[in-house]
Please model this.
Amino acid sequence: MGTLRIVSRSAEPFRDRMEAGQFLGRELTQYHGQETVVLGIPRGGIVVANELARVLEGDLDIVLSRKLGAPGHSELAIGALAEDGKLFLNDDLVRELGVQSAYIQQARARQQVEILRRNELIRRVLPKVSLQKRLVIVTDDGVATGATMQAALWAVRQEHPQKLIAALPVGPEETLKRLAEDADEMVCLRAPPLFGAVGQFYLRFEQIEDEEVLRTLREERERKRNKQHK
Model:
C-alpha cells in the first residue's frame, strides 16, 4: 500500500476545476521539473490535470482506460482495459464474485469500442506519452466510489512507471484508503466527513464536452512543439 496524505477534512467547495488543479500543484511542488507526466481522467479530470501539469511544468496526457464493472454492480471494478488493449483483472474479486469468462469477454468488447472511439478522437490531436520509467500522476476532479480512478491506476501500472501517484481534489476517506493500495502515493486535498457527490464540492461544476478536452490537448501539442524549438 502506498502512502496516503489527506491535506484537510474541510468541506469548503473549490471555485472550479481549474482552482482545484492549481491547489493540487501547490501540494506536489516536490515533483516540479522532474519530467512528470500528468494524466487526466476524462472529461472533468483533464481540466484539473491541465492546471496541475502547468504548475509542475510536466507533460499532459489523458487516460483512455475503461473499467470493467461487476455483473449487476457496474460501479464495482473487477478489472480495467488499457488503451493498448491490455486487460487487468482483479483475480481475487473475480473468483469471489464467481464472474464467468463469457461475461468478462463481453464487457471487454464493449469497453474496447469506447476506447477505440476516444482514441480516434484524441490521438490524432495528441500522440500518447510513454509512461515507462516516468513519474506519473493520475488525477480527476474527485472520486465517490473510486472505481474509474482504480481502473486507471491498474492500467497505468501495466506501463511500468517509475512512480505512480494518485492526486485528487476531494473524496471520501474510505475510498481514498482503498485507492492508496493501488498507487505508490495518494494525495487528496479534502476528505469531508459527510460526502454525497463530487459536484457538491465545487461552486462551478459544469459538464465538460469533448471539444473542450480536444482544445486543451491541442494547446498541449503546441506547447510541446514550442518547447522542442527553443
Notes: The helical segments are 17-27, 44-56, 91-97, 101-122, 147-157, 173-180, 210-229. The chain has a mean pLDDT of 94. The first strand starts at residue 3 and ends at 8.
